[in-house]
Amino acid sequence: MNKQSIGKLNVFFMGLTQRNSENKDFFKSMEIIFKSGRKEFKGIVKEEEGLYNFNFKGKTDLYKFTDLLKAITKEAENYDSITLKYIERGTTVVIEGDNKKVNVKYVDNKESVDQIDEFTASQIKNRDYYVKVGQANELLKEIGVLTKEGKIKNDKIRKYNQIDHFVELIDKILKEMKTKESITILDCACGKSYLSFVLNFYIKEVLKKNCYFIGIDYSDTVIEASKKMANNLGYKNMTFIKEDLTNYTPDSDVDLVISLHACDIATDMAIGLGIRAKSEAIVVVPCCHKELLSQYSYNDMEPILKHGVFKARFADLITDGLRTLLLEGNGYDTSVVEYISPLDTPKNLMIRAIKTKEKNETAIAEYKDLKGKFGVEPTLEKLIY
């Protein structure tokens, strides 16, 4: 390639260097094809512990990224043209150059399957999934929704529907964060982090937004399992920490706190952490409620509450109602929606909260009034103040 084209190539490589610096956690590989006449010479680049392994003509060298591009530029001087594909999660940057011109284009990375088996097609035909079979096969296989052959597992259809519906219900929240360069999500009592993995895929590879995830759990087993899955998927933008939620303080801003079916006061720990961290949004799907069941009393309703089932259900209502009031008191606009069918689980409410102001004194007064009427002392209040 002539000097003029090499100069233009270097200009595009400057942009690529900046992209790599900002998006390093999303890098997957690079493919380079040099052409001389009809002959092609292919090179492959893989990341190796922060450096870049360039395999070309049977030789492998390790470089820093800027030095790698210098080596590629120098090699391009010996050929008629170059095609470089910089592949990251969700997007491929293609730089093409010859002696006449050099240009760049951006291509969406989309996995596809030639054919979905009849059973899978019949099970997913009634829903337009946000995280789709075909496009997200690698992810869905890793979290156990699909078999190695790409067929949906009969016993995982409900799980697939649940996690995809969670994405649907917070999609608007995610899209309203469009002005942010990156979204940081904290998954409280994360377990095996299936929800975080699905959101990671959706935000980065569907919405084309950079994102980072922190998973917190007190179990060594689930933390190690999550780390293994992240490594298998190449999701370098995820950190998993063994810690009690009441002791954890994030060392950077958090945009969204999530928690799915964290038992009893673990949901309160998640909400409390979100409020203390001044998270822009908090979304939780509570599980069992035990704390207030033994605390509350309401004499006017005793003829009804003498029945154990009614007393337990009313305890659930008080618990989630007081949670929403505390969120509102701390400046969050809240909404409560049905997450999934009660036929799947009776614990099917989702609380969504968006930070809009510093305080809401009216909500705080309402909370204190109801707390007094029921004679309860919710843990969540102690975790906030």
Question: What does this protein structure show overall?
Answer:
The protein has 385 residues and is of the alpha/beta class. The strands form two sheets. It has a seven-stranded antiparallel sheet with strand order 4-3-2-1-5-6-7, with helices on one face. Strands 10-9-8-11-12-14-13 form a seven-stranded mixed sheet, sandwiched between helices. It has two domains: 3-108, no CATH class; 177-384, Vaccinia Virus protein VP39 (Rossmann fold, 3-Layer(aba) Sandwich), CATH 3.40.50.150. The radius of gyration is 26 Å and the shape is elongated. The model has no long low-confidence stretch (mean pLDDT 92). The chain has helices spanning 3-22, 65-76, 118-124, 137-142, 157-175, 194-206, 220-233, 265-276, 302-305, 308-329, 361-374, 379-384, and strands at 27-36, 39-48, 51-56, 59-63, 81-88, 91-97, 102-108, 182-188, 210-217, 238-242, 256-260, 281-285, 332-338, 349-355. It contains twelve helices and 14 strands.
Q: Which descriptors would you attach to this protein?
A:
385 residues, alpha/beta, Rossmann fold, 2 domains, 7-stranded mixed sheet, 12 helices, 39% helix, 25% strand
